[in-house]
Specification:
Elements (H helix, E strand, L loop, with lengths): L18 H16 L2 H15 L4 H29 L8 H20 L3 H29 L5 H9 L1 H14 L5 H22 L24 H30 L3 H4 L5 H30 L1 H21 L5 H27 L6 H28 L4 H18 L5
Helix pairs in contact: 1-5, 1-6, 1-7, 1-8, 2-3, 2-7, 3-5, 3-14, 4-5, 4-8, 5-14, 6-11, 6-13, 7-11, 9-11, 9-12, 9-13, 9-14, 9-15, 11-12, 11-13, 12-13, 12-15, 14-15
Length: 411
Amino acid sequence: MDQGGRPFPDTDANTGRSRLFLAGYGLANAGAFISFIPFLTLLAPLKAAEVAPHARDLTLSQISIVGAITAAIAHIAFGALSDATRGRLGRRRPWILGGWAATALSLALVSLAQTPWQMLGAVVLLQLAVNALYAPLAAVLPDLVPDHQKGAAAAWAGLALPASKLFTALVVSALLVSAASRYAAVVAATALLVLPFALTLREPPAPARAPIAWPSLRLTAFADGRFRMVFVSRLLVETAVALHTLYLFFYLKDRGDLASRLPGVTPEAAFGLLLTASTLGMLAAGAASGPLSDRLGRRPMVVTGGVLIAAGVALLLFAPEWPGPLMAQIIFGIGHGVYSTSNLALVAEVLPDGARNGRDLGLMNVAVAASQALGPLLGIAVASTGGDLRGVFMAAALAALAGAGALLTRR
């Protein structure tokens, strides 16, 4: 074991990784996100309506809950398994390649499902496969990228979410019509983006006398104060994002001035405009904030992103008339881009055990999974006490501020 608890020597700690490596890593992350974002946002609802036309909402909800639980457990498990892998191909590469093949097969099984139970089984397999691909891919950043380049690498990786959303909107939704062509496009795009990086990835060999690293699912990372601080911050900010995303359309649709301000524009079209604006803001801010965090430090950038997210959500409350929502969404998108990119680099820095990066990244990912449940629960709580959507968005703004403030504590 070399210095810093890293299981493999980092031969590029001084010179850093090449731009080609960083770009390839970003494209591979985009491919990983394309393997599931189009499915979650469009293909799953369409498939649920096909296999259960009279109970599509209930079927989709049940399958989504089981899928989310599977994903949270699978990320930790496959991260731990890749931590313990030894061989000529490295720790991460065998799982990335195997995960991609399993993802392609699982997507085919989902497309062939004819009943809700068949769809549920295929979705569980898909979540296992996607995390077998993504968990080791995410661990490449703390494994192989030196600290002075983590922000740049995170900027490339941060393009994955907005890129996958644009792929969903422009290709899967608008360009393609048949279900078969949509699933085929997802598999093809994932292959084109993931395989070049995975096939050329070279990991330093383990030292000759390196101890065997058995898979470990222990929660020892939470004993580290910095890890706990970043986890709590991420949970709060991601909960704010989940609340905002979940209820934005309803908020926009309930605005009485939309018809007069934008004659002939449906709430759906206005919602699409807001999503496009936030995605473009997220792309631009994410690309710039990663390298900037290398110079200014991680915490200031993450705090800035959280504050901007809170400001974007709060602006919906203080400027509800059009074009207030558009300006709010642009600020939100910029904040989300700054936060997600710099937070990814910060997470890579606070992992406490270099031999368990895959497992500990999975534990950190629980914050994101938990926010997907905590957000709706907070929304239900506000509604049950007689509050309306203004209370929901106020809760979101306060959660984002609290998440940003959590990083100001000394650890």
